[in-house]
Amino acid sequence: MSTVAPLLVARGVSAGIDGRTLCAALDLDIRPGEMLAVIGRNGIGKSTVLSTLAGLRAPLAGQLTLDGMPIGSVAPRALARRRALLAQSHEDAFASTVLDTVLVGRHPHIGRWSDDSAHDVQVAFDAMARVSLTGFEARDVRTLSGGERQRVAIAALLAQDAPLCLLDEPVTHLDLDYQMDTLSLFAGMAHDEGRAVVAVLHDLNQVLRFCDRALLLTGGGEWVCGAVDTVLQPDTLSRAFCHPLRELRDGERRYFVPA
Amino acid sequence: MQSPASVRTRTPRLRTLALPLLAIGLLLSIALSLSLGSVPVSPAQLWQIMTTGGDAGVAGDVVLGLRLPRVLAAAACGGLLALAGALMQVLLRNPLADPYVLGISGGASVGALLAMAAGLAGALFELSALAGALTAMALVFGLAHGEGGRTPTRLLLTGVIVSAGCGAAVSFMLTVANEQSLRGMLFWLMGDAGVAAPPAAALWALAIGVLVCVPLARDLNLLARGDLTAQTLGVPVLRLRLAIYLIASALTAVAVTTVGAVGFVGLVVPHLMRLALGNDQRLLLPASALAGALLLLLADTAARTLIAPAQLPVGVLTALLGVPVFLFLLHRRQ
Question: d(Cα A164, Cα B309) in Å, to the nearest integer?
């Protein structure tokens, strides 16, 4: 795996808001073909780290490069073709059909004066099919349930077709079956399509099941990063989440439950 | 599964025909408005006057000297207000925003009334109104800066407060104004194309506004879906928001300076166009400009012919039309 050139490289990157450092001196290589989980308590800085990695927030310190170029120097539209970000919440001030909302993901691929081509529409339809939204094309997004709206956002992200996908709580609002389907989909995008997927997740058992590596934010700017099996240990997690966790085993597979 | 093409838009034909239809409607309204009045002009006469450039005696003087400037001013300002309204609705991400919500008409009103109280007229009067509008704009822009930049909520709240302050200043000036200037002040506050400034500035502003905004329309489509979405997809959000704020404010300032604080055009027209044509800014912005021009021109034509020889301030008519339309739209939304 380490022979593949990394997409995103962080060297000594500090991420934070208003001068408050939430994650200090982060060294991280994100390579195609892997799925990385970002975990930690509420408000510890997971979303801030994610938007810093996305190039939307300047790091307080350190170097961040995408495809070997400083991320700040990549033109916004070119950046949007290389990395996609699934936001935590979605604003719908105006009426819009599901199809038009998914087509928004095609924006960086369409010229200023061009319209969506048949290809773009096909990509959008394929994306909707992958999150079981076939038949929803003409619905107004403001009439959807929270889970349906979240799947529309995921479809838009798929339509953006970027090699680096950053996901802020991709399975919020989703029913259990869709949670599993969605995470399998993203794991497949990493392992089979060779994309890099970084996801903020809350369910540790989902992290164990779908992710290759984990970045655990432990507060005060500190972090631990490594293979899921190394980082997700009962004592580390119990400290990080301020509640004792017990590990259960079912054959090869490990599970964490609150003690 | 529906074929991709069939769900693209519900009304593709309407979308293609919208701009040509509105443009034809506008031309017809201009002809109608030029013909109507105390000196009736027949279509044949009008054609002759417009093609030969006058020399038709009284009718020619009336059409070219009196009616044409007023018609152009009303149409240009209607277009300006509707375009500015459409931009403000995207900027504030609120379909119920209007061009005055950030205090620009309030500032212009204070400037205009101060000029009237001082007995200024002509270019000095317009400069004073423009200075008032720009002051309010600078005030809102300066004060709305805070954590997270100029967010829609902070802009809106600052605009409402600055408007309220201007309203108080206007009330004060009306209270202490003398009898002669009071009527002029009231007409100006309601919006009155009868005393409109020369239309050249408004026409230029409208042309520049449309030419600058239509190329930005694709990015505005994304901005309407939220700052983060737009930024993630490659839109330079901070720069775009600043540009839209300045453009919409400048367009409003020119319109208000020319015809006064005409209400509801900037709110109702973009809203109606959005209902009819959808929220693609590439179509919505030019359609709003044309429809705004059409509406304000028709309203002004009615304002000067309904109870002739007396004239109504056009703002009274747009409000009388706008209030029920707006309430209807609001009711439909729920």
Answer: 70
Cβ–Cβ under 8 Å, residues B108 and B130:
yes
The arrangement of strands across the sheet holding A20-30 comes to A20-30, A8-17, A61-66, A69-70
B234 touches chain A (CB under 8 A): yes
User: ipTM, 2 decimals?
Assistant: 0.87
Q: Which residues of B touch A134 (CB under 8 A)?
A: 1
- Among B232, B237, B239, pick the best mutation site for testing chain A contact (most A Cβ within 10 A): B232
Query: Quick check: A122 and B4 in contact, CB under 8 A?
Result: yes
The Cα B14–Cα B10 span in angstroms is 9
How does pLDDT run across B227-275, given as a tens digit for each residue?
Answer: 889 999 999 988 998 899 889 988 998 898 888 888 889 999 998 898 8
Tokens of B51: 């093609």
CATH superfamily, domain at B19-333: ABC transporter involved in vitamin B12 uptake, BtuC (1.10.3470.10)
Note whether A99 contacts B234, CB cutoff 8 Å: no
Contact (Cβ atoms closer than 8 angstroms) between residue B37 and residue B304: yes
Taking CB atoms and an 8 Å limit, are B8 and A108 in contact across chains?
no
Average pLDDT taken over every residue of chain B: 85
Closest chain B residue by Cα to residue A141: B225
pLDDT tens digits for B178-222? 888 888 888 888 877 776 678 888 999 999 999 999 999 989 999
φ/ψ of A75, rounded to 5, equals -60, 145
Choose among B1, B5, B233: nearest Cβ to A108. Answer: B233
**A215 near A39, Cβ under 8 Å?**
yes
Contact A78 B234 (CB under 8 A): yes
DSSP three-state, residue B315 = helix
CB-defined contacts A:B, below 8 A: 82
Given a cut of 70, the residues of chain A with pLDDT beneath it are 1-2
In this prediction, residue B209 carries a pLDDT of: 94
Distance CA B8, CA B283 (A): 15
User: Which pLDDT band, with edges at 50, 70 and 90, does B10 fall under?
Assistant: very low
Is the preceding peptide bond at B324 cis, omega within 30 degrees of 0? no
